[in-house]
Amino acid sequence: MEEMSSNIAKSSSRRPNWTEREKLVLVEAVRLRDDRLFGKMRGPGGIKNSKVKEQAWEEVAKAVNAVSETVQRSTEEARKQYANIKQRAKEKSDAMRRPSTGGGPKPPSPTPVELEMLNSMEDRPTLCGLSSGYDTEEVILGIIPSTCAFTNNEENCTENFENTSQTLYATSVQPVTYPTGSSSTVTKRRKTMEDEEILTLRAEREKYLEEVKKLKEESDYYKVKTMYLKMKMSQMKKVAEQ
């Protein structure tokens, strides 16, 4: 009986889950204070920098509480929730970057909140692409948001994707050197290997272009959904102010 009472007490004191609106405001508030929270700060000591970051997190929590309909969130809760969203977004991004081995379920796509998180991390060094060849994460986080913005038309968006794909393909494919020989057997074998290599590269390129197309469609969908949620938030804010 005492154990049951203890469980009821614990469940009643549990904090309400974060709403999608709170999460969106959290990510946006952190993005606006990115330099103070994550940038390199110059100052006489670490204590001053720590105070600057703590003040920034207090502002983030205040922004979240301004739209919260349940409870008031503390700075510690804001920190933990942001870290959780960031981790889930990164995991989904990594899953989408891994080459498909056939079979198994399709990796889940980022939610609108997680997509906003990835977009806010776009310019950070941890998510930058490689200087040579290509990194799929750069394709997801860099190419899609910039070339598929709603201000561009569909023709320009398609052209940018094709140009980018051709550039990545050209930089990632290196010439293959095979051992030379004087006999016709070695020459035929080398020719066969070259033909097979070309066919393989063509198949990989087609697969890559198809993946880029799918990612573009998913990005456009979540971009629209994010804009819709922001519009609803703005409308609700206006109603609350009246």
TrEMBL record:
Keyword annotations: Coiled coil
Residue stretches making up the Myb-like domain: 10-86
Feature: compositional bias, Basic and acidic residues: 88-97
Ranges in a coiled coil: 198-225
Biased composition (Polar residues): 1-16
A GO CC annotation given for this chain: nucleus
InterPro entries: Myb_DNA-bind_5 (IPR028002), SANT/Myb (IPR001005)
The keyword 4Fe-4S appears for this protein: no
Recorded superkingdom: Eukaryota
Record PANTHER family: AGAP001331-PA-RELATED (PTHR23098), REGULATORY PROTEIN ZESTE (PTHR23098:SF16)
The protein's name in its UniProt record: Uncharacterized protein LOC111132082
Record organism: Crassostrea virginica
Organism lineage string: Eukaryota, Metazoa, Spiralia, Lophotrochozoa, Mollusca
Gene name of the encoded protein: LOC111132082
